[in-house]
Design brief:
The protein is α/β, with parallel strands linked by helices. The protein has 8 helices and 7 strands; from the N terminus they run E-H-E-H-E-H-E-H-E-H-E-H-H-H-E.
Length: 246
């Protein structure tokens, strides 16, 4: 592809964890990739440099997804730079764990602001700006099906994400835009590994019939499929990419 006919993909949280691998995969697929980040400019620029070194196009934009003014500005920058937005992959999120009885409401409010409010804002502006024939994806989690202790507040935030995805699918009727959620199982990113012992990680590993943790590349492959020509008939779904974990 030449620079003029590349489709444009926005990846929120595009420099860290799963988002980095999603960004790199979409760049290999021929997309111009916009990497959104919330604070670590150096990490975002490293991913952008990696994409450019391989012959791709990348742009980094700092924006707090829970701040609508930031998100509105980000979408405007993308339109100004590329003229259109074809794919939005919303991976940005946080995962503090705590029992319901001992929930720190300040931490809960921050998680809801990032995970649920942030998703609503990104979906709102995606609905306004994604081109006809485009793709919108938000990230949920396969842990919803497990109801593990200490995951209640996080599960609540992600259940809300899935609800928004189902409704937006219907609201975009007639525009040929698909809306899906991707719900990974355990992936050994910093977000997942934080605070877990090796024994606990091994328990998660054995929960899947495949007896391994997923890899970020596994999830990037699912996103690539949904963003590509073969994914156009998948709409309004929660794709639980988890190796049989749930």
């Amino acid at each position: 592809m030449t620079g003029d006919d590349r489709r444009v993909a926005l990846v929120t949280g595009g420099a860290g964890g799963i988002g980095r691998f999603v960004s790199l995969r979409l760049a290999r697929d021929g997309f111009s990739v916009v990497l959104n980040y919330a604070g670590n400019a150096e990490k975002a620029e490293q991913v952008a440099t990696e994409i450019k070194s391989a012959g791709g196009q990348a742009l980094t934009i700092e924006a707090d997804v829970s701040n609508e003014a930031d998100v509105e500005r980000m979408f405007k920058q993308i339109i100004d730079a590329f003229g259109s937005i074809d794919v939005v992959v919303h991976t940005a999120g946080i995962m503090p764990v705590m029992t319901i009885a001992e929930t720190d409401l300040a931490v809960f409010d921050r998680m809801i602001s990032t995970n649920l409010r942030g998703t609503l804002i990104v979906l709102k502006h995606s609905a306004k700006h994604v081109s006809e024939g485009g793709r919108i994806m938000a990230f949920s989690s396969s842990v919803i099906a497990k109801s593990f202790p200490t995951y209640g507040p996080y599960i609540a935030s992600k259940a809300g994400v899935e609800g928004l995805v189902h409704v937006l699918t219907n609201e975009l009727r007639g525009r040929n835009i698909t809306v899906n959620a991707v719900a990974p199982g355990p992936i050994p990113t910093e977000l997942f590994l934080k605070g877990k012992s090796e024994e606990r990680i091994d328990e998660f590993r054995k929960m899947s019939p495949l007896e391994r943790l997923g890899q970020p590349e596994d999830i990037a492959g699912v996103v690539s499929f949904l963003a590509g020509p073969d994914g156009g008939w998948v709409n309004g779904q929660v794709v639980r990419a988890n190796g049989g974990f749930a």
